[in-house]
Amino acid sequence: MTAPSPLWFVTRGAGTVSLVLLTVVVVLGIATTTRQSSDRWPRFLSPRLHSNLALATIVFLLLHIATAVLDPFAHLRWQDAIVPFGASYRPLWLGLGVVAAELVAALAISSAVRPYIGYRAWRVVHWIAYACWPVGLLHGLGTGSDVRSGWFELIDAVCVGAVASTVVAWRLAHGWPQAARFRTLTAMGSGVGIVVLILWMLNGPLAPGWARAAGTPPDLLHTTASSSR
After folding, report:
1. N or C: at which end does the chain have fewer Cβ atoms within 10 angstroms?
2. 3-state SS assignment for residue 155
């Protein structure tokens, strides 16, 4: 068995931090959109903190990508960090990570050029935030080596709960007042999505033999301590 390199540990840590930061960014984005505020939390703090955490997310995401490519274990190429679903190591789940990273990049670029593209176009692009978070979550669950660790499962549960409760409690309660039917369907869809996610995890990443099923090359299977890597 080959011992993991230090880069592997950095990749794991940076990926987890990226998910947590992206979760907070999504939650704050919804709070900003619905103009949530209180005496202890002035309204101007949400967009300012949202911007700073979005920048921190990009930094940790770049660190996650760079160390994943430099880590010799999976033999990833730089083009694998740009072109989704082309890697030899767990191509589907790694590809979802590439898609999520590119969606985050689109959000950052749209914010930088907002004065030139206008508010309406910027707002349309920012709906991507609702897609890059679940895609990034699936990437971490499908590719991550810590998916069976209690601390990792707790972090994922908190992230999913935070986004789901924010969408239901804020976005659906305070947003779209003229679309009650759409709000109801979205709330039901959120609940169904969580159930489907749990069932998939039980029969996928948490089930024996996931490493092989996820697309780990045969020559790498014998180097892992367990089938979860």
Report:
1. N
2. helix
Structure tokens at 151: 């601390």
Query: Mind listing the pLDDT tens digit for each residue in 31-74?
Result: 776 555 555 555 555 677 878 898 999 999 999 999 999 999 88
DSSP letter at 147? T
Handedness of CA 157, 85, 131, 100 (dihedral sign): positive
Measure the CA angle with vertex 185, ends 181 and 190; round to 5°: 150
CB within 8 A of 34, min separation 6: which ones?
170, 171, 174, 175
d(CA 145, CA 83): 22
Q: What is the DSSP string of 60-110?
A: HHHHHHHHHHH-TTTT--GGGGTSTT--SSSHHHHHHHHHHHHHHHHHHHH
